[in-house]
Amino acid sequence: MFPLTLSAIFPPVQASTPITFDSANSNSCASSGGSCSTLSWSHTIGAGSNGILLVGVSHSAFFTSASVTFGATPLTLLANHVGPKNSVELWVLMTPTAGSGTILVTLGVGTNFIVGGSVSYFNVAGTRTPSGNHGVTSTPPSVSVTTSPDDLVIDTLAVSLGGSATTSPTGPGQTQRWNSGPITIGPATFFVGSGSDQPASGSSVTMSWSVSSVPSYAWSLIAVPLIPAAPPIPEYPLGIPLLAILTVVAYGLIKRKAEK
Description:
The protein has two helices and 21 strands. It is mainly beta.
């Protein structure tokens, strides 16, 4: 009876398992004739549990890609955001199969620029509500999302217009996962696609980037928080005092019964 009483009083408590980075890769296309309608590259999924594959797509068109696949498996559109000169998308596949496969992005209609980046993680339970933003030179790229502690936020950035440019993440703890660098058509037209992640420690995270070496640019940025997996882990923070009380009570009951 006593062990059954303990198990009822001390149920397992959910404790987060940290999200871990697996791998990342990317590719890009530039064409003055607008013939960038598909883009492909290889991605390798390692060994782990509760895996997730995310694909960020940055392009100079104003519509959403028709499809994104990993091998023969289609991904689901998680979010997209259209800015003044470009668009960004995030696609997701939960529990991807381990091993190497080809990621294929199909726009359906050609465009001048497209950048794709893929990143995989383990110990992910799902995603929260995404957020998107866009702007011009006077507003450096940034977007804020609502988070919980131990979330990991991933973003996708597109930058376009005049000259050659470089981008770099500036948020605290923000880690770049892919960056096309400036892909160009002629001497004056450029495009950059990049992506990063940043751990959360509170109720919100701001993903931010710097853009250098250009007189003018337009940008689009989208971000989504990943939720850490939370397997049941027995934790008994009040176990010692409660156990002592129960032990005394049980001993008293047993003693009284024996004295009768």
